[in-house]
Amino acid sequence: MFTDSIEMSVRYAETDVMGVAHHSVYYVWFEVGRTELIKKCGMSYSQMEKEGIMLPLTESSCSYIRGLVYEEEFTLITRLEELTGAKAVFSYVIIKKESGDIAARGRTVHPFVDSKFRVVNIRKKAPRIWELLSSIAK
């Protein structure tokens, strides 16, 4: 499976009163990783939506292993873990840049739906999108 990595750092607004990255921002970072990964296969989320395909998030999980603090640099690794005609599953690993320790691991599940939020088979409904995503799922 194709993976993509992005260098990031914790912004002040992303920290809580204890000075660590708030748990909710990990999902924002996951979205950044996911959209960048899809762009690298040759299509953006907005292009997919114009072609009538959307990827709502229906499941998410994150294991917080080591906290991140303000200005701490990290690498976000995103991978298209599973691809079927009905859904895409992405996995994420956040690695502390200085120590190399894993800070978090996550996973999100996204069915392919049309504009009425009905699950579709992307192989039939949007073969071009299927081919692009398949190219990074190998």
Automatic annotation (TrEMBL):
Q: Answer whether the UniProt record assigns the keyword Ribonucleoprotein to this protein.
A: no
Q: Which family does it belong to?
A: Belongs to the 4-hydroxybenzoyl-CoA thioesterase family.
In terms of InterPro entries, this protein maps to:
4-hydroxybenzoyl-CoA_TE, HotDog_dom_sf, YbgC/YbaW
Q: Tell me the keywords, alphabetical order.
A: Hydrolase, Plasmid
Q: Which organism does this record belong to?
A: Peptoclostridium acidaminophilum DSM 3953
Q: Extract the CDD domains matched here.
A: 4HBT
Identify a single GO molecular function assigned to this protein.
fatty acyl-CoA hydrolase activity
The UniProt transmembrane annotation reads none
> Which Pfam families does the entry mention?
4HBT_2
Q: What is this protein called?
A: Putative thioesterase
Looking up NCBIfam families in the UniProt record yields: YbgC/FadM family acyl-CoA thioesterase
